[in-house]
Amino acid sequence: MTGGTMTGRIRRDPRAERSRRLVPGGDRPRLVHDGNVAGMAVSRRPREAPVRRIEAPAFWVAVVIQAVDGGLDRWGRQLLGAARMLAGTDGGVVLVGLGDIASRQAGEAGADRILAIGALDDPEAAPYLLLELVAPFAPRHVIFAEDRTGGDLARRLAARSGWPIQPGIEALSVRQGVRPCRGGRSERVAAVARIITLPCDRVAPYAGHACEGRILAAPIPPSNPAGRLVFGPIVPAPAGAIPLSEAPFVVSAGQGVTDFETFHALARALGATEGASRVVCDAGSMPRAAQVGASGTVLDARCYLAFGIAGAPQHLQGLGKVEHVVAVNTDLHAAIVARAGLSIIADAQAVMPALLALLQGGGA
């Protein structure tokens, strides 16, 4: 329209034209510029993620990981990330799992091969078995966690094999490892040794394409090669007997919990250690040893299930190392909900008995 008179030209509708050119289906709609969408076949199958496969790598990097509840924790994924970095594009990563680890989970974390050998109960036999396992791979590096199990195994393997070791590396690259010395007042920089140990949160997890994670047959551990020590079966500790700072699964009560009988029953059914907020401990509903937070206990759990906890800053400081947080709260905007990976916006008094009924009835 010009000067109040009709020009006679047909006005275009770009939005309608674009909608007519969209082809539904597939991963996302496709835009056909000529508008001819008739007879076009679009696959609706989900696209498979690429998998990195390597048959004959130039060298191997081995990583020894203690399985946690049948899987990899944050630390284990970081160790595989370090191995993947040292292996580069030409090398392969073999995971020696102390326990059962799912092939897909390990492959996504960066493992090309998997050797699951179960628990090494005899510290005297451990270096013999590890040498037998990794010898066919002639690994350029063997990586352990700098914890009680990994640190001890790494040092025993170094003493048995004579391979050089760098314990407690704080910064790692392909060329060098940096570790503290002289009581932490200085740093020592050197080429990456054949055996290294890493504290937690020093290397990022692997974030590339999933690797094959092929499971290999592992030799049966010798019964008692050293001939000195004989160990009995491992008996898991009751959940209530595990210290709060070491518990892998913590169920915690806040001011929103009033039915503590159901709370205790649910914690027992889940096999979890009990925790609480400061307000609950101040009220005497839970012992002071159960307090979670900066002035209580700082957790290192894999999962933290919080009932009726708003999430004060002091309390959230106690969740710094928790891997998975599940929050049950009536307030959608509570700070604990923002911290949680999964939230249930409901009253804790309604959720707790429902969960307990599922557990007792075998529905969960």
From TrEMBL:
One Pfam family recorded for the sequence: ETF
Keyword 4Fe-4S among record annotations: no
Entries under InterPro entries matching the protein: DHS-like_NAD/FAD-binding_dom, ETF_a/b_N, ETF_a/FixB, ETF_asu_C, Rossmann-like_a/b/a_fold
Keyword hit for Transport: yes
Domain of life: Bacteria
UniProt biased composition (Basic and acidic residues): 10-20
UniProtKB keywords: Electron transport, Transport
Entry-linked SMART domains: ETF
SUPFAM superfamilies in alphabetical order: Adenine nucleotide alpha hydrolases-like (SSF52402), DHS-like NAD/FAD-binding domain (SSF52467)
UniProt-annotated stretches for the region Disordered: 1-29
Residue ranges occupied by any Electron transfer flavoprotein alpha/beta-subunit N-terminal domain in the UniProt entry: 61-233
Family: Belongs to the ETF alpha-subunit/FixB family.
Name of this protein: Electron transfer flavoprotein subunit alpha/FixB family protein
Species the sequence originates in: Nguyenibacter vanlangensis
